[in-house]
Amino acid sequence: MQQPAVVNVGGLDVMPFTDMAQLVQYIVRDDGSVFAGSAIAINPEKVMKARSDAALRDMLNQAEIRYADGMGVVKVMRKKLGQPVQRVPGCETWEAIMLRAAAKQVPVFLVGAKPEVLAQTQHKLEQQGVLIAGTQDGYFKDEQLLIEQIKHQEPVSLRSRWVHQNKSCLSRRRNNKSRMPILWGLVVLMTCSPAM
Q1: Considering the domain boundaries, does residue 29 fall inside one?
Q2: What pLDDT does 155 receive?
Q3: Which one of 16, 56, 77, 180 has the minimum C-beta count within 10 Å?
Q4: Measured distance CA(141)–CA(3) in Å, rounded
Q5: CA trace torsion 93, 98, 103, 107 (10° rounding)
Q6: Please, are residues 47 and 76 in contact by the beta-carbon 8 Å criterion?
């Protein structure tokens, strides 16, 4: 699937997906492969904050996918493009990606939240047919141990969505040659080797 063009909204380059389904299919493809990179929802609050915070603007623009999750951003994009652009809500998109991962048998590694919330999320996802490759609650101190835990799954490629600035260290690690993941709230999607 070809990458959509970008529209600059207040210093952030945002991709004009026609709807949530297009974004979900861009991330988890029909053949079960998964997009290589990170994605973040862009809303008016992030645009306004990024205008005065260069570090935040740079971090947001480093995500390979920046999609419109706010009507203010959508309206600017519609006006600049002269064509339909839909709001892509983050939480609903995450749920749709999990369902597509289940349908395509793409394993998911869950990261974040309190242990009991993580366990509930894992249980609900497993009930929906999602293959859980592993989990780690959000109260970890050793980033290298988490990276090794994920690498132990022998991923061919890793995919995710960025939470926010507090995990920027892992984001920087992802940009090095090792192709390490960044976090998407609770999830890292991975296309794994058959040995898993």
Answers
A1: yes
A2: 53
A3: 56
A4: 36
A5: 140
A6: no
How many structural domains comprise the chain? 1
Two tokens, residue 88: 């892509």
Q: Distance between CA 160 and CA 97 in Å, rounded?
A: 10
Cα–Cα distance measured from residue 101 to residue 78, given in angstroms and rounded to the nearest whole number = 30
Domain containing residue 146: 7-192
Please write the tens of the pLDDT for every residue from 99-110. Answer: 998 999 888 888
Q: Is residue 100 part of a domain?
A: yes
Alpha-carbon span 10 to 44, nearest angstrom: 9
Distance in angstroms (rounded) separating the CA atoms of residues 18 and 23: 8
Is pTM beyond 0.90? Reply is: no
DSSP state of 97: H
- pLDDT (tens digit per residue) in 43-56: 999 999 999 999 99
Token pair recorded at residue 189: 């999607």
CA nearest 130: which of 169, 109, 102? Answer: 102
CA distance 146 to 153: 11
In a domain, 112, yes or no: yes
Q: Quick count: other Cβ atoms within 10 Å of Cβ 15?
A: 22
